[in-house]
Amino acid sequence: MNEAVNQGDVKIVLDHGLATIEFFHPLSNSLPGKVLAKLANTITEAGENDDVKVILLKSAGERAYCGGASFDELISIDDIDTGKKFFSGFANVINAMRKCPKLIIGRVQGKAVGGGVGLASSVDYCFATKFASVKLSELAVGIGPFVVGPAVERKLGLSGMSELAINATEWRDAKWANENGLYNHIFDTVEEMDEAIDQLVEKLKNSNPEAMSMLKQVFWKGTEDWDNLLAERAAMSGKLVLSEFTKNAIAKFKSK
C-alpha cells in the first residue's frame, strides 16, 4: 500500500465551548481507514465532553474539502471482510455525527467528492464557499454511494441524491448544493465564510445545551436503524470493491 495512505490525521482544539475538529490528508484530504476511525472517535469524545457546547468540523488546506475514499487503500482490498471494514469507517463517522448530542457545524472550503459529500450531509448546519462543488463518483469506479447515500438523501431528498449518484462524473456547483439543501449558506471567500461561522458559533455557545441536544434528536428522527442500515451498506460496497470490474475501474480512474 502506498505510504501516503498513512500520512493523514485528525486534530481537535477546544476553545471556550467550541470544539474544532480538523481532518487532513496530503491526497486532497482523502479518508483512509486510519483517519476515518480517528475522526469517528474524536467526534464521539467531543460529544461526551461537558465543556463542549458546539462542534465545528473542517478540513485543512485551501482547496479540496474532501477527496472521499483513499484509492490506494481501496485498490489494496483483497477480501470481503477488509472491504466491509473499510466502508464501515465511513458508516462509523456518519453514525458518530448522528448520535453526537452536540450540534455540528460544517465548513466546506472546496470540492467534496464521495465520502466528503457524506460528511457535509451529516453535519447539522453547513457553510461553504462558492468553490465547494460536489460529486458522488462511486458509480464511475464500479461501486455506488451506498454508505453515504442515506445521509445525502436525508439532506438532498431522493431526487437530489439520485441525480448525483447516477450522473457520477459530473460536478454540481455550490449554488446547486445550496439550492438543494446541502449547504445552508455559500460565500465568495473563505474569510466571509469564517466570519459567518464565528457569529453563529457565538450564538450557539450561549444557547441552552439541553434544548440544542433535544433539537438534534428532532432533526435525526427516523434514522434510529442506521447502525444496522449502514453496516449492511458497507457490506454491499465491500463486496463490489472485490470485483474485477471495480478493480479495473479504480486503476483506470487513478491513472487519469
Short description:
By secondary structure, the protein is an alpha/beta fold.
Task: Tell me about this structure.
The chain has 256 residues and is of the alpha/beta class. The chain has ten helices and eight strands. The strands form two sheets. A six-stranded mixed β-sheet has the order 1-2-3-4-6-8, with helices on both faces. Helix 3 (80-99) packs parallel to helix 4, helix 3 runs antiparallel to helix 9 and helix 4 packs across helix 5. The longest helix is centred in the middle third of the chain and has 20 residues, at 80-99. The mean pLDDT is 94.
Give me some keywords for this one.
single chain; 256 residues; alpha/beta; 2-enoyl-CoA Hydratase, Chain A, domain 1; six-stranded mixed sheet; two-stranded parallel sheet; 50% helix; 14% strand
